[in-house]
Specification:
The chain is mainly beta. Helix content is about 0%, strand content about 55%. Strands 2, 4, 5, 6, 9, 10 and 11 form a seven-stranded mixed β-sheet that branches. Strands 1-3-8-7 form a four-stranded antiparallel β-sheet, with no helix packed on it.
């Protein structure tokens, strides 16, 4: 099982980034997929989730209207489009997969929002 995030980096406030997560080793299309963020010294927090078919999404209030989660089950990929980024969005962003008692995490990708 592997989840590999990519797309992080340094961006100015107000800018955009698109994170990607490539999944392998499990039945991706059966899993709820989510993105979490962890800022230095803080706990990992939920940001966005998408159901297995992509029919429903859910967002934390802090990112609602700015971030969009999507998935491509044919490619085993999940994405997080991040717009209007703020310095407080700086964190390590993790991809998460969940199905019943199965939970998998990626290694994370760093996002830094700074001028």
């Amino acid at each position: 099982v592997e989840l590999v995030e990519s797309g992080g980096g340094l961006v100015q406030p107000g800018g955009s980034l698109r994170l990607s997560c490539a999944a392998s080793g499990f039945t991706f299309s059966s899993y709820l997929m989510s993105w979490y963020g962890q800022a230095p010294g803080k706990e990992r927090e939920f940001l966005a989730a998408i159901t297995s078919t992509g029919s429903r999404t859910n967002y934390a209030d802090s990112v609602k209207g700015r971030f969009t989660i999507s998935r491509d089950n044919a490619k085993n990929m999940v994405y997080l489009q991040m717009n209007s980024l703020k310095p407080e969005d700086s964190a390590v962003y993790y991809c998460h997969a969940n199905f019943e008692t199965y939970d998998y995490w990626g290694q994370g990708t760093q996002v830094t929002v700074s001028s």
